[in-house]
Amino acid sequence: MSAMDKARHKVEEAVGKAKEKLGSAAGDRRTEAEGKTEQTKGNLKQAGENTKDAFRQDG
């Protein structure tokens, strides 16, 4: 399940990045901010998965 979660988080980050660029190009600050938020969520979730993996390997 971990690989599936990692892929899902990577997609969330990519969607956020695209949304941020779209908002920036359109001058829509709200969409741009939503994109940044989605990117941050994706990054944090990926970091959590990496931490879980590190503990699994050491355990």
TrEMBL record:
Domain CsbD-like: from-to ranges: 5-56
InterPro entries per UniProt: CsbD, YjbJ_sf
Region Disordered: start-end pairs: 1-59
Membrane-spanning intervals of the chain: none
Basic and acidic residues: bias regions: 10-39, 50-59
Family assignment from sequence similarity: Belongs to the UPF0337 (CsbD) family.
Name this protein carries in UniProt: CsbD family protein
